[in-house]
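hey so i finally got around to running the thing on that chain from the lab meeting. sorry it took forever, my laptop kept dying and i had to restart like 3 times. anyway pasting the input first so we r on the same page abt which one it is
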Amino acid sequence: MKIAIPSTGETLTSPISDTLGRAPFILIYESSTGEFDSIENPGFQIQDGSGLKASDIVLKNNVKVLLTKEIGRKSYSALQKEHIKIQLLKSSGTVKSAINKYLKKSGI
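ok and heres what got predicted. didnt touch it at all, straight out
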């Protein structure tokens, strides 16, 4: 299963970004292999529509779950429409710690 998470850096040890749209990177983690891709978010530096740019990355990579601290209404609607599970995070930390917590909680 592919999991997406907005990140301030390109590795699993990078801190989680506070928002989806303004994240410099979106990390795509494959739970079955432990492999990941780091994708630069084109919405990081634009004024309007940054969340939709990040949402496009999620959709184009066949992600099933998005872990994020904050998400805008338009992005939320676009992802919900495509049946992407959105899990809001309550705390900061690294990408890896958030993924591990989610997988443990989900029993995956």
